[in-house]
């Protein structure tokens, strides 16, 4: 398999991962009217296609003579299940994130979900461990938590500033609520943080999965679970009318291609992070750089939502200010947490 051999090569891979993970959600926005339930199917197709191509090309060539099948056969089947299970959990988390984006937009849903993932992941990783920089740890977690709260308040303020629907005769119309999007984002973040321990179990130990086989099994879990999750949300939609299976074939090919492209983009970015983490110790980046680059995609996605898609354009000045404060607090918290491992 091909792995980076120098710090520069590893850094390039991590930057690639940062950009791909931070930008993939834009394909959903570009898909326009394509419902997230249908986009999720295309995303899984792109993810599976990219994982197979990368596994049987870059995962099978190189100077070490270690093939993909060697990698898969030299581990316990439990590690296969860990990787597949992580893919299933990620897939549900990602579909819920897409649902949240469909309701609230990238700039509200992604900082909430991925910020919560970072917060829970860091605290979980520090259980039973000592750190030489406890002040940075506590302050970093506090800033990330503050960013999550600021994000929730900003979106709530945005919803409150939207004009209420015109009531029909004899019917009461509920005031706009931010609860649905916030709950979807929070559950997505919690589920996503739950996939990381399984990935760690699959990629550590005496015999462990390499990055390409790890991504392949991860993608299998995501693709296998997509029909179940998508059909569930088609019949019990987050918003709008229930969908039929035939609605998938009625959508424009261009929109489907954007969904497939989103899956390919995400797979490329995540695999780049896996490969950078799985290379030889002498070529790996420090834990501080790895943490910052792994979670920096949140800032890119949030800025795209604010500056490219102008999701807070209709909001009050307070809502817009809090949306930017969210990203500033997250950046500060990520920087402090990176110093913990520096």
What keywords describe this structure?
14 helices; 342 residues; mainly alpha
Cα(first) to Cα(last) distance is 30 Å
Estimate what percentage of residues fall within beta strands. Answer: under 5%
Radius of gyration: 20 Å
Order of helices and strands: HHHHHHHHHHHHHH
Instruction: Determine the mean pLDDT.
Output: 93
Note down, in words, how this protein is organized:
- The chain has helices at 7-23, 25-30, 36-56, 68-73, 77-104, 106-125, 134-161, 179-202, 211-235, 247-250, 253-278, 287-295, 297-308, 317-340.
- It is built from 14 helices and no strands.
- Helix 6 runs antiparallel to helix 7.
- It is mainly alpha-helical and 342 residues long.
- The radius of gyration is 20 Å and the shape is globular.
List the SSEs and their pairings:
Blueprint: H1 7-23, H2 25-30, H3 36-56, H4 68-73, H5 77-104, H6 106-125, H7 134-161, H8 179-202, H9 211-235, H10 247-250, H11 253-278, H12 287-295, H13 297-308, H14 317-340
Brief sketch in words of this structure:
By secondary structure, this protein is mostly helical.
């Amino acid at each position: 398999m091909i792995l980076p051999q120098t710090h520069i090569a590893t850094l390039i891979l991590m930057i690639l991962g940062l950009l791909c993970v931070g930008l993939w959600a834009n394909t959903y926005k570009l898909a326009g009217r394509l419902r997230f339930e249908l986009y999720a199917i295309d995303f899984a197709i792109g993810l599976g296609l990219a994982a197979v191509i990368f596994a049987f090309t870059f995962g099978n060539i190189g100077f070490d003579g270690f093939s993909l099948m060697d990698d898969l056969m030299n581990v316990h089947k439990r590690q296969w299940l860990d990787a597949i299970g992580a893919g299933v959990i990620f897939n549900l988390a990602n579909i819920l994130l897409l649902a949240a984006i469909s309701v609230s937009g990238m700039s509200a849903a992604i900082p909430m979900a991925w910020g919560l993932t970072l917060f829970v992941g860091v605290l979980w990783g520090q259980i039973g461990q000592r750190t030489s920089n406890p002040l940075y740890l506590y302050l970093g977690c506090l800033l990330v938590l503050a960013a999550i709260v600021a994000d929730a308040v900003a979106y709530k303020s945005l919803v409150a500033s939207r004009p209420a629907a015109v009531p029909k005769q004899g019917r009461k119309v509920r005031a706009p609520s931010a609860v649905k999007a916030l709950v979807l984002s929070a559950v997505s973040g919690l589920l996503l943080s739950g996939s990381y321990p399984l990935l760690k179990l699959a990629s550590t130990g005496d015999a462990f999965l390499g990055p390409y086989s790890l991504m392949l099994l991860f993608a299998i879990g995501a693709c296998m679970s997509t029909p179940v999750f998508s059909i569930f949300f088609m019949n019990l939609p987050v918003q709008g009318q229930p969908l039929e299976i035939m609605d998938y074939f009625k959508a424009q090919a261009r929109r489907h291609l954007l969904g497939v492209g989103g899956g390919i983009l995400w797979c490329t970015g995540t695999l780049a992070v896996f490969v950078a983490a799985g290379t030889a110790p002498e070529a790996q980046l420090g834990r501080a750089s790895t943490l910052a680059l792994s979670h920096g995609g949140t800032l890119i996605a949030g800025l795209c939502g604010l500056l490219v898609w102008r999701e807070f354009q209709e909001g009050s000045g307070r809502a817009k200010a809090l949306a930017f404060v969210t990203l500033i607090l997250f950046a500060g918290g990520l920087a402090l947490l990176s110093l913990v491992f520096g």
